[in-house]
Design goal:
There is one protein chain. This protein has 80 residues and is mainly α.
């Protein structure tokens, strides 16, 4: 014979199981990053920066890209 307490325990267990499954499904979202390494000839750096400012950045803004980071090598292989 199933009592109210048993029913309540089963209901709470089922609810807990649903919450755990929902949380696990929500954690499957991933953040994707694109890393691009560009090697430049020292005499082409100004041309590359102009291209980035006038062509690439406006196109990324139009596409809805929210952030973009550009790093420059200070030590080591300077053209990288």
């Amino acid at each position: 014979m199933i009592t109210r307490r048993t029913n309540r325990t089963l209901a709470m267990g089922a609810l807990l199981l649903l919450c755990v499954c929902g949380t696990a499904a929500a954690q499957d979202a991933t953040t994707r990053l694109l890393v691009q390494v560009t090697y430049l000839k020292p005499e082409k750096v100004t041309e590359w920066r102009t291209l980035q400012q006038n062509e690439v950045v406006p196109a990324l803004k139009k596409a809805g890209v929210k952030t973009r980071t550009t790093l420059e090598t200070l030590f080591g292989d300077r053209p990288e």
